[in-house]
Amino acid sequence: MPGLTVAIDVGGTKLVGALLDGDGIRHRVERATPGSPGAADPGSAALRDLANELAGSAGTGEPVAAVGVGCCEYVSDDRLTSREVLAWTEQPAAWLPAVFSGARVVVESDVRCGLLAECRLGAARELGSAVFVSWGTGLSSALLLDGAIWSGSRGRAIALGELPGPLGLNLEQFASGAGMAARWGAASGRPGRGTRALVAAADHGESTALAIAATAGQALADALAALVHLLDPERLVLGGGMGCADTAARRALLRHWERLGNPAELVVAELGPDGPLLGAGLAAGWRG
């Protein structure tokens, strides 16, 4: 597509935006997502600031042809259909064209953007079937079936975290970064410490953090094994901040996966945490 493509990845922990050209990322912006899950980025204020900054960086020399936005919500037909993380008040597709002078805007689920990027540029190239797992602050997945990304009848075929987990929790509450941090805070009597603190404590051998990381990895491995039994994909691709980093939780997942002896291959995303960002650009027409 002639002109620049803007790609934006809106997550529960951070917002990342980039100007993409034929050579890749020309300019990148990153900032924290303000607010707590369910009330993050009220009114999309941080997203608007990031979009305006990217528009200013693009300047007037080369127009922005398209904008791709990957959001950590349910999405159908370029519309957000949930408010589980973000406290948005207007649809991004309604106001972003004014920021980027009428550019075409595509809005998609961030996990499907991650899968798209791995299909075009990464670990799911030339596959007919795959499962992409975004393991980070939250937990979700996307499916490649018969060479096409399956969105579901209502755009909701991403809800890996809604599956039942141990202790009466769902899988996201038990095994996501935020879920592990919450369990660690409750067990230690020190609530409010985040995912990074949990990961650091586990990697330094703190017993409670290490046990929580280990049980999270095992629970996620069991859930992925169930997906393999149900769907029989060629490969599972592990993405997201937790999935791409060498942590105690991921090591526990991989150990348990080996013990389970599953026929499907489990690999780490080739594009790392930037997969959803690049996938947002690809969804908007960037050629990679």
Automatic annotation (TrEMBL):
Q: Which SUPFAM superfamilies match?
A: Actin-like ATPase domain
Pfam families xrefs: ROK
User: Domain of life here?
Assistant: Bacteria
The name of this protein is: ROK family protein
Leader sequence range is none
InterPro entries for the chain: ATPase_NBD, ROK
Instruction: Indicate the family of this protein.
Output: Belongs to the ROK (NagC/XylR) family.
